[in-house]
Design a protein that fits this description.
Structural class: alpha+beta
Number of strands: 8
Distance between the termini: 47 Å
Radius of gyration: 18 Å
Strand content: 15-25%
Order of helices and strands: HEEHHHEEEEEEH
Number of helices: 5
Number of domains: 2
Amino acid sequence: MTSFEKNIHPLMASAAPQGPPAGGGMPGMMGGRPGGQRGQAAPDFSQKLAKIALPSGTVTDKDMPAIEAVIDHACSEISTSIKSAGQKVDYEVIKSGLLAFQDWLKKQECVRQASTRYDIQSTEKYTDQIFFTYPGTLPFDIDFRMAGNTKKPYRLLLFITKADLFNVASLVENTTIDGVPVPKDWPNNPWPYWNVRESYWKKHP
């Protein structure tokens, strides 16, 4: 058992998916009360997230399932905090959760860099970006500190809805450039990539 496994297992035990609280779960209804309750204090994510950590050293591909479980646990804590505050879930509330998650992710010692090309700050763009599909999707490009100084970027995809808020959809090796799939024979045969890229950006300007 590696040092990472010893550290991560207690977190994984508490990282099981959590459903909506009893009496809730429908969009716009928090705790069974239509529209929720306004005027309550905004949820404080910092204390809960401070107790959740990814490994402090380098990681390998074998660590990714455990890392994904911990990331999902962090998302669950943010979602639970929002629901417990009894706020009506709108784009501003979702933004507060996303910014807290992004800040937490960037602070993890095994994460060299984490970014998303989506504009999290501009809620007026959410419909065209995050909620273009249902459930809403938000990708993060993550550069982990890999053992052996291996350069292998990963793509984290979050599912987002107003009912269930934040859940991990997948954490996989990133084989795209700016969201466009890279062919297996790249860069020896670059033309299929550029053709697909041109088609992609016509649909996603």
